[in-house]
Amino acid sequence: MRPLLPSARLAFRTGHAGLLLVAAVALVVVSVPWQDGGFATSVVHLVVLLAALAVALSFDDPTGDVATAAPVRRSTWTAARTVATLERVVPVLVVGFLVAWLRFRPLPGWGLAAETTGHLVAALAVVAGLRSWRGTHLPSYPAVGGVLLVALVTRALPGGWAMVDPQPWGPPYEAALWRWLGLVLVALAVLAVAVRDPLDR
Which spans are transmembrane here (predicted)? Predict the structure, then answer.
């Protein structure tokens, strides 16, 4: 995987994902004066969504048709792109979480961590699935639609099934954590199938 990392990092720098991360950092900085209440949680929600969208935009490979003959396994290529992307995404998420926590100590950390993991893994599953099953080397924009759909569905659930901003204690909070875990497990299963090479299936 290491030989692929330089090209994966270059692909990230030349794409549009970095603009979303810049927007996330700008959002955190601009909103600092207002993060001393529940608004801090809303800012983290937006930062997480922007980070997931950045992941979705990081897997385009315009040279894919030429590189198909190269002896690189699909799982190895995906792992290199994932590492190169998370190298940029994770620091932004850490900054967003840290600022929100410093401004609003009752921040529901476990719930937001579960939400972050769910969105990032879902983004990886969507983009890998598009590359595998649609045979496209440019999955970014359809993947953005998939990430937004996941965000919409998780926010549109009725109160008894809430995954975003549930009651931050007791059974409703625990149930929301279990639902995020379920989403992560489903997304991991999709990802595991999507990154298999055709001859291994």
Answer: 12-32, 38-59, 110-130, 142-164, 176-195
